[in-house]
Amino acid sequence: MSGGQRHTEPVDVHLILRRESAAGPQVLLSRRAGQVYAAGLWHLPSGHLDGPHEDVVAALVREAREETGVVIDPADVRAAVTVHHRSPGGASRTGYFFEVRRWQGTARIAEPDVCDAMDWAALDALPTGMVAYCRAGLDAYSAGARLAVHFQLPGDAIAFDSGTDRLRIVPDVTGRAFASCPDAAIVEFAERVVGRITEWTDASWARENSRVWRAQGIQGGTWYVKVHQNDKFHGREVRGLRTWAPALGAAAPRLVAADEKLMAVVLTAVPGRPLHGAVLAADRQRAVFHRIGALARRIHQSSPARPAPAGSGPAVAKADRHLAGARPHLNAGDEEFVRKLVRQAEDLQPLEWVETHGDFQLRNILYTPDAADEADDPDVFVAVIDLERSEPGPVVRDLVRLSDAWVGRPDLFEAFLAGYGRSLTAAEEARLVIDAALDSVSGIAYGAAHGDAELVERGQRTLARLRAKHDATLSSKEQPGAH
């Protein structure tokens, strides 16, 4: 323990008098006036303890009556948040913010010499010209925090300035409201472009190493913050968001900001819910797949088609590696079937390249409205998310994983093609079979290595389907003298 006089600092109390309205929660603010600190700025009703005889709850009840005329029962006082504050002048203090939702009397200006206005303000739309200390307490309260630090620096304004917001929330022992919050660098990056974020919700897909959070802003906005697992995925997603995604309008997220060093992006929220697992009536399913086909067409036609680069056929070079990882989980005949397809790929003519999503499957396609399958309105809106595998390639690149969705439902495939505006060519159909088989083997190998039984089963199921339809044809082609 260092010598010298112990540090002491004032203790003050702040009243969050809260009422509910049709537009959302409101809090009572008063505007400071006269020969007082921060004259002309909005603040919560507040004050200091009168001395060691007075506890913080008693002080709050007294200050509320003196400043606003309302009478509060101590039993109705609820602890909200504690803020350790330092002013631009260097003096520090501890403030206890309390929420009160029940009181007697009507709030009014009871001390006109230090207050010239009093009004209710929406909690999610606080006025400009607020004391920064007060605003920090309300922001921490809105975030569900219990403790916050607000140490201003010399030269900072007394009034709240989003550009020099010094609020730092201290998580409690449960991590409440910030249990899934990304690290400080990501938080700083996101808040620099969208402002204070009051709630983080982990929205990551279980199978991916990339992390995604839904971020709720202090003013009510919603964004998604994504941190990619590597530079390649980051580059792909940013490129897709900057090239073909804008052509989709509301049917794709908009890039708000990207940070190459952090491998992070901030995206706008897209309405809807994933189609993966959705249960829809048959006619509604057809309407949805018609729209998916139209969405795929918009992606593929977002820029002119161009010739495929040399050596850009199916990924047969990876076949041996994927087969080695998948071999213990393959059924008899699967490996030979895949190798037949690989040999057939050598004779395929290259397909034109277009912009592709790269992971076009139901979990990355959103559907709105949620209850459309129960509604008479035939209109359907679909949108796409997760562009980290986006890169140029043949049209069928976006049908490889989606084709699983219309197994046993040729009407859904027909609806997709109707929305897309054309059927597949013979060359595209052949390429789709090869790419689907290679993707299945890759999925089996990945699922086996990462303990994902569902992914292994899906790959096995797809291979069985492909073999049932194409194995006999392939075998006949490889017979001596076959033409």
Task: Explain what the structure shows.
There is one protein chain. It is built from 10 helices and 17 strands. Helix 5 packs parallel to helix 8. It has helices spanning 56-68, 132-142, 184-194, 231-242, 282-300, 319-326, 334-345, 410-420, 426-450, 453-477, and strands at residues 11-21, 24-32, 42-43, 46-48, 77-86, 92-100, 115-122, 147-151, 167-170, 197-202, 211-217, 222-227, 255-259, 264-268, 273-274, 365-368, 381-384. It folds into 3 domains: 11-170, Nucleoside Triphosphate Pyrophosphohydrolase, CATH 3.90.79; 184-268, Phosphorylase Kinase, domain 1; 273-477, Alpha-Beta Complex (Aminoglycoside 3'-phosphotransferase, Chain: A, domain 2). Strands 1, 2, 3, 4, 5, 6, 7, 8 and 9 form a 9-stranded mixed sheet that branches. Strands 10-11-12-14-13 form a 5-stranded antiparallel sheet, with helices on both faces. Strands 15-16-17 form a 3-stranded antiparallel sheet, covered by helices on one side. It starts with 10 loop residues before the first strand and ends in a 6-residue tail after the last helix. The protein is an alpha+beta fold and 483 residues long. It is 30% helix and 21% strand. The protein is elongated and about 90 Å long. Keywords: Hydrolase. Its cofactor is Mg(2+). Residues 6-147 form the Nudix hydrolase domain. It comes from Streptomyces sp. 900105755. This is Phosphotransferase.
